[in-house]
Amino acid sequence: MKAGNKTGILVFTLLGLSEDPELQPLIFGLFLSMYVVTVLGNLLIFLIISFDSHLHTPMYFFLSNLSLVDICFSTTIVPNMLVSIQTENKAISYMNCLTQVYFSMFFPILDTLLLTMMAYDRYVAICQPLHYMVIMNPRLCGLLVFITWFIGVMTSLLHISLMMHLNFCRDLEIPLFFCEVTQILKLACSDTFLNSILLYFMTGVLGVFPLLGILLSYSRITSSIRKMSSLQGRQKAFATCGSHLAVVSLFYATGIGVYFSSSMIHSSQKISVASVMYTVVTPMLNPFIYSLRNKDVKGALGRLLSRAFSCL
């Protein structure tokens, strides 16, 4: 492959999870099932929040956006993998690969920032309850979500604009089932110094700092809860934070696993397993975490189902 070739002739090969032909039907069925559950679960959360007026609060506004992002994130990756297995064609064109890289960075950025906003929302609700509706007003919530999307779009575009100047001149095999930025940079034969600097910088700014913000919010929340004299009040405060903490832990644990496995581990199987947890399993589990641990969501689901049955 000649260096500098960035036309439609340039293709990458996604090695996937396994090259064993006997495992392909099992992998196809498993990922198809998880994708359907992801889409239906997150879509149900989005619809419940949209149609139930009891859930028209800042916390559930952010949650509805998170559910929408999870649907889009899975759709960026899983359908292409399923088509690849079905057609037995592991090749992906240069432009399609860059498109997948763009969205595989864009949606996790949105996830990170939305989870940070949800932590801030919980901080205001528990630590400043009397001023909650004044601080977390609809205008501020809308502005925060807009800023989140803007940061995601501009950061991902910056990455892609730098990647479009790279040359590739060796075996273009990616040991994953989707195009991931660190794996693409490893295949480049031109200088990737600026790309790496930008990647590390953005990982710090959009990964570490939001996590620090979440930890700071929960340190304040914990301090406020410990000062509460009522046991019932403490339990209610913990209940409102439990689902969010579970989602944050799952998201960051799998994200850190993908980051370190891609950068430091050379076993393609371990990298693929970490990527599956991050890109497929986490978006699938989020709606279950919020629905099973949240009385408001379960109550809204019951009202929605009773309304649907009454119309039959």
Q: Could you characterize the architecture of this molecule?
A:
The chain is mainly α and 312 residues long. It has one domain: Rhodopsin 7-helix transmembrane proteins (Rhopdopsin 7-helix transmembrane proteins). The protein has 10 helices and 3 strands; from the N terminus they run βααβαααβααααα. Strands 2-1-3 form a 3-stranded mixed sheet. Helix 1 crosses helix 10, helix 3 runs antiparallel to helix 5 and helix 3 packs parallel to helix 7. It is globular. It is found in: Cell membrane; Membrane. Its main location: membrane. This is Olfactory receptor. GO terms for molecular function: G protein-coupled receptor activity; olfactory receptor activity. Keywords: Cell membrane, G-protein coupled receptor, Membrane, Olfaction, Receptor, Sensory transduction, Transducer, Transmembrane, Transmembrane helix.
Q: What can be said about this structure in brief?
A:
The protein is built from 10 helices and 3 strands; from the N terminus they run βααβαααβααααα. By secondary structure, it is an all-alpha fold. Strands 2-1-3 form a 3-stranded mixed β-sheet.
